[in-house]
Write a structure and sequence with these properties.
Elements (H helix, E strand, L loop, with lengths): L9 H12 L6 H8 L3 H13 L3 E5 L3 E6 L6 H5 L4 H6 L7 E4 L5 H10 L6 E5 L21 E7 L10 H16 L6 E3 L3 E4 L2 E13 L2 E11 L10 H4 L5 H5 L5 H22 L2 H11 L5 E5 L4 E9 L5 E5 L5 E4 L3 E4 L5
Parallel strand pairs: 3-4
Antiparallel strand pairs: 1-2, 4-5, 5-9, 6-7, 7-8, 8-9, 10-11, 10-14, 11-12, 12-13
């Protein structure tokens, strides 16, 4: 098992040049001159793009034109949509993006390479997973070629008790990306789900390694139902799942969506590292629309219903219980959104 090449290459530079040309032919001579390689070497790289599913037309005495791209979130495909400030930051630079056709779980693999010293900002992407996981040991259905499954390796200088805040930050960035692609009614469900029409369109699984009460690394795993057919999911999961393309009535390019998320995540992450969770708490509350909602809280040893009243300064949900009329701090567990009359 090996990732696709994550080092910036002549092939990825040619791809970006063809994208930037926006349908105008680029000659092999000009591409070769810009990259310091021969026309024959340019042709070889273009053939490599074609074998990877890119549609590149050749026009005599004019050059090459990119007319179509595969919907595969490879390192080069994602990098082509990253904003310049993200590329300049180095956090999610192309050389830190690893793509696999299949993995057991991006979180499992990311945890492994993080323990081996993988850099802050490494992104692990899989086109499919054989053992995708959600919170509380749940299965995350991971068919190939249709959805997004990826994990971020982060090394923030924070105490372990604050690591869960990164789940909320990730949800905020994901919700913004989903809205950017046209689904304005997305909801963030504390702590780790994104909902469309009350059903789950994305989930987040955050795991960490701690040493001497300091975070060594955090792995933030994300799964998004982008283009999958509901019939392609298991019956159990299909009943509770939403799909972005179904909601929008059109296909979504996965590499563009992932890059949009990384662009947005970096902005929130920088703010968080500078100003702490307080800087995003009120924004998360506003965009989640959970404040004042009726909820059911399912814990390991009990369940109760109540009204969500706030997030505390650490990001934990505060719920006014129906049974005691007292405020309870929810540290973990499942929180279900109820109808107003429930």
């Amino acid at each position: 098992m090996s990732p696709s090449s994550s080092q910036p290459s002549a092939q990825s530079k040619i791809l970006n040049a063809l994208r930037n040309a926006r349908g105008k032919p680029l000659s092999g001579h000009l591409l070769g001159k810009e990259l310091g390689i021969s026309r024959a070497a340019v042709w070889k790289r273009v053939e490599g793009l074609r074998k990877s599913g890119y549609q590149v037309e050749s026009y005599p005495r004019q050059g090459y034109v990119l007319v179509g791209e595969p919907d595969t979130p490879t390192a080069s495909a994602v990098a082509g949509y990253l904003q310049q400030d993200v590329l300049a930051s180095g956090l999610f630079s192309p050389d830190k993006i690893q793509f696999f056709t299949t993995l057991d779980s991006t979180n499992i693999y990311a945890g492994k390479i993080a323990r081996e010293g993988a850099a802050d900002g490494t992104v692990v992407i899989a086109d499919s997973q054989s053992a995708g996981r959600g919170r509380l040991g749940r299965v995350w259905d991971s068919p190939s070629g249709v959805n997004l499954y990826f994990s971020l390796i982060l090394r923030p200088a924070i105490e372990p008790r604050y690591a869960a805040q990164l789940t909320l930050l990730t949800g905020l960035a994901l919700a913004e990306s989903i809205r950017e692609f046209g689904a304005d009614d997305v909801e963030i469900k504390w702590p780790n789900d994104l909902l469309l029409g009350g059903k789950k369109v994305a989930g987040i699984l955050t795991e960490m390694a701690v040493e001497e009460n300091q975070v060594q690394f955090v792995v933030v795993g994300v799964g998004v139902n982008v283009n999958v057919e509901i019939s392609g999911l298991t019956e159990e999961i299909g009943k509770i799942a939403a799909v972005l393309s179904d909601h929008l009535k059109k296909k979504v390019k996965r590499s563009a969506f992932l890059a949009d998320f990384l662009n947005r995540f970096l902005g929130w992450y920088r703010l968080y590292l500078t100003d702490g969770f307080a800087s995003i708490r009120s924004i998360w509350l506003d965009r989640s629309r959970i404040k004042g909602r009726r909820v059911q809280v399912n814990l390991v040893d009990e369940s109760f219903s109540g009204t969500a009243v706030d997030l505390d300064i650490d990001g934990f949900l505060l719920v006014k219980r129906d049974d005691t009329q007292k405020e309870a701090k929810v540290l973990a567990g499942d929180v279900l959104l109820l109808n107003k009359d429930s």
